[in-house]
Amino acid sequence: MSKPSPINPLRLGLIGFGCVGQGLYDILQKLPEPGFVVQRIAVKNPSKLRPLPAERFEFHADDLVNDPELDLLVEVIDDPNEAFRLVSQALQLGRKVATANKAMVARHLPELLDLQREFGGALLYEASVCGSIPVIRTLDSYFGQEPLHSVSGIFNGSSNYVLTGMTTAGVDYATVLAEAQAQGFAETDPSLDMAAFDPRSKAVILAAHAYGVLLNPDEVLNLGIESISSADIRFAAERGQKIKVVASLLRLPAGGATVFVTPQFVDADSPLYHVEREFNGVVVDAAFAGQHFWRGRGAGGHPTGSAVLSDLVALRNGFRYAYPKLTETTAATSVAPDLELEVYVRHAPKELRQALQLTDIGDALSAPGFSYDYVVGYTRLSTLLQHRDALRAAGVFVARTGKVRSVTAEPKPELITAELVAE
Hints:
Blueprint: E1 10-15, H1 19-30, E2 36-42, E3 57-58, H2 61-65, E4 72-75, H3 80-92, E5 96-99, H4 102-119, E6 122-124, H5 135-142, E7 148-154, H6 157-168, H7 173-182, H8 191-194, H9 197-210, E8 221-222, H10 230-237, E9 241-251, E10 257-267, E11 279-286, E12 290-297, H11 301-316, E13 339-346, H12 350-356, E14 359-367, E15 371-380, H13 381-386, H14 388-393, E16 397-406
Parallel strand pairs: 1-2, 1-4, 2-3, 4-5, 5-6, 8-10
Antiparallel strand pairs: 7-9, 7-11, 9-10, 11-12, 13-15, 13-16, 14-15
EC number: 1.1.1.3
Family: Belongs to the homoserine dehydrogenase family.
Protein name: Homoserine dehydrogenase
């Protein structure tokens, strides 16, 4: 398709007019020659006040999906189930779609790929991961042939904002979370961000492009910061570290990859150490190109809207993801292989400490009566996944130290003796 002139721009159907939808609309109004015009806008709530005249909005998104006069569709609504219904319907019509819905893409990527192959449509979703950082297309194209040792990063600005407040200002979790909500950096229900469901979706999406693996999000470990305390922040600071919620994608020696998202102690020499507030950061360790680091705003109307715009330009130019590493042998893999992670565990009831089967205990702190406040040791990734919900329900805080090793034999849990306890 030849590039249209500004006199004859491509017509957009915009489904959703929240933060991202308004951000994209505003960007298109400010660009002198965008090559796009928002022809129709569909929203859910007729009574909500919006910054455009009421006649600009309609309330049946299916009408936009089925409108042959629209050249491109943009889906930026919150509901992942409704987003999948609309996007899958559009792809069955062979349409070109840009979306920012990371939960929808992560959960339904295999089906979305099948629909594109069968009906010839195209779906791009750069805006679904890390806002303004162009990570998906870079992994898919630039690193499409190169083996990657790891991809890791801070993929959620809301939890990072909270951790920054706790670390730099000494504010407690509840207070800085309320501040983040007041400033629009965290939702009224913060569980998607604080419990690491949001960065888990983003990590699952990146796994398809970095390693060619299609994962079920429910089978990927995610532990968040809902139970973090000032004691954990001090523990890290005394060791010259900060706590960050880090998503890790690791290449496995036998092929494929594994993915997990947890709080992690980050050293001062890591580029992630300096990623603060609502910013995101991505570190790629490539076999030949070495380490790359990208930092940018991970959320917000304009940063995410700019990512949507980049997808619209790419769709206009006929671009579609290649998924060069996706093959029949890599499409599915174990997300909890025989790996052990060194973890810091605080406030764990006795039965959960025993269930984690910690080995090689390197540090522990006891309160009077030997009720251990924290312990540092190794546990299997699969064990953490198995007990993830119980740990969350019990208010246990778990953070990785960053050390990972292969399991070579059946673990033999070590007893925490008085010699290992720092009174």
